[in-house]
């Protein structure tokens, strides 16, 4: 099949996940790796017995072909398209894991041909707004790592104290959120995958009315931009680090050193540290996390 000049010239990033039983994850991994190498795509794909989760980038032509080929095997899978390309990823990584998103509960999650069993009710973006308008006790519950919410979140959202998704089970079982168990709770995350699992874990722990947003923050932002219930920037796990839904996006993040508005994360200057810190342009000249600040007086100004 021939490709247009645009397809060959332009690049895109694909984001997707699909919960479905996979009998032979290793075989799917080898097929996906071969397909991506042939199409010169870069990114990260994780496969488990519960399904597949991926973010890949490359030429528009290659992305279109990847979508066609992958849909032949995973019937019903949906892809989100985003600006970017292979250059936004350091390499191609295709691996088999116990979970396609790591909550540390592979034995608890149940999946059938219809997806996650016992998860939260799916809401389209407009249904989220309708729920909030019709109920005054709706709670937004952030399903991401806490640092992601520093630059963007749903207005009034609860942001659990978690560094990674592995921390969520202990956080849910801590009792901090027991007062929410009889309230309508809308979980949200970047593209929806983390909330597929999180909403199931919450329901298993007595939260009675749990929802999740179809397509996550990405789909909500595409629908409402910055005129809805979302505020700020969206953290993304590639070289872009963040994205905005419109030119009207608020900057809600604050520099960890001086509190100036910023939405820019920087990797710590200590080579052994993997922390990312919000810094303004001035303090980004020496990007250290607060733990490894080389000058005591800088840390004292926080």
From TrEMBL:
It holds the Pfam family Rhodanese. Catalyzes oxygen-dependent 5-hydroxyuridine (ho5U) modification at position 34 in tRNAs. InterPro entries: Rhodanese-like_dom, Rhodanese-like_dom_sf, Rhodanese_C, TrhO, TRHO_N. It catalyses: uridine(34) in tRNA + AH2 + O2 = 5-hydroxyuridine(34) in tRNA + A + H2O. GO terms for molecular function: oxidoreductase activity, acting on paired donors, with incorporation or reduction of molecular oxygen. The gene is trhO. HAMAP family: TrhO (MF_00469). Signal peptide: none annotated. The keyword Oxidoreductase applies. This is tRNA uridine(34) hydroxylase. SUPFAM superfamilies: Rhodanese/Cell cycle control phosphatase. Belongs to the TrhO family.
